[in-house]
Design a protein that fits this description.
- With 243 residues, the chain is of the alpha+beta class.
- Helix content is 21%, strand content 31%.
- Strands 5, 6, 7, 9, 10, 12, 13 and 14 form an eight-stranded mixed beta sheet that branches. The chain has a four-stranded antiparallel beta sheet with strand order 1-2-4-3, covered by helices on one side.
Length: 243
């Protein structure tokens, strides 16, 4: 672990230069430590794959004093206990066709059939390393190496909300309409991010996502029902706490 003063109001703490669950656990341990400490000068704690940004109020302290208060020079991250439970959010996806225009390209690039791509994509539980790019966009780890596919040469001006894609060694989904260069293989009919819902996002960093395939009939059923005030999103999104 090492740290760097980024500005008069920010300190960046870095861990090993790799993306994996062990490194991310250290990120989570530091976040837990900072949250428990509840320093009154800290405004925001922002975790990523392998680092934590600490934003603070420079009217209350300075970077050097905060580093001393947080004991960053002597802190042993291994001594910090975190909860071992992890939430798995299962999200329905329709694959291929107009919902996944790049599914065949992903299959061709990896010498797989379309059915094999779907099977490999729905098999793992993906760790959410962070949310970014836009509210609710999950950066997921755990994509099967057999599905690694480069980004598109020409990004699309618009990718529909709910689209599920692959870019190199990652998979993720677009919560809202957006430009993007990921290879789109499917779409969820659900609103994974909703300003009028509490919480607004169905998941957070440290949770896990697993996708499951649905038919056109099921997709249409969800689309028809989801704007109903009595829509039961839990019928379609299975959330499990695993220990």
């Amino acid at each position: 672990m090492n740290y760097q003063i980024i500005s008069e109001q920010a300190i960046l703490v870095r861990f090993e230069s790799r993306i994996d669950p062990k490194t991310f656990k250290k990120v989570q341990q530091l976040v837990v430590y900072l949250e428990r400490l509840a320093h009154d000068a800290i405004n925001e704690i922002v975790p990523s794959y392998r680092a934590v940004m600490i934003h603070f109020d420079d009217r209350k302290t300075d970077a050097k004093s905060l580093i001393e208060d947080l004991k960053l020079d002597t802190l042993d991250i291994c001594d910090i206990e975190t909860s071992e439970s992890s939430k798995v959010v299962r999200i329905p996806v329709i694959y291929g066709g107009k919902y996944g225009p790049d599914l065949e390209e992903v299959a061709k690039h990896n010498n797989l059939s379309v059915e094999e791509v779907i099977q490999l994509h729905t098999a793992p539980t993906y760790l959410i390393y962070m949310l970014g790019f836009m509210p609710g966009f999950p950066y997921l780890g755990g994509l099967d190496e057999r599905l690694y596919t480069p980004r598109r040469d020409e990004p699309r001006v618009r990718i529909d909300a709910g689209s599920v894609g692959i870019a190199k060694n990652q998979t993720g989904l677009y919560p809202k309409d957006s430009p993007g260069g990921w290879q789109i293989i499917g779409r969820t009919p659900l609103d994974v991010f909703d300003l009028d819902r509490e919480p607004m996002t169905l998941y957070e960093a440290g949770d896990n996502i697993q996708f499951y395939q649905i038919s056109q009939e099921t997709y249409d059923e969800i689309i028809e029902q989801k704007y109903d005030p009595d829509f039961d999103i839990e019928r379609w999104v299975t959330i499990q706490d695993e220990h």
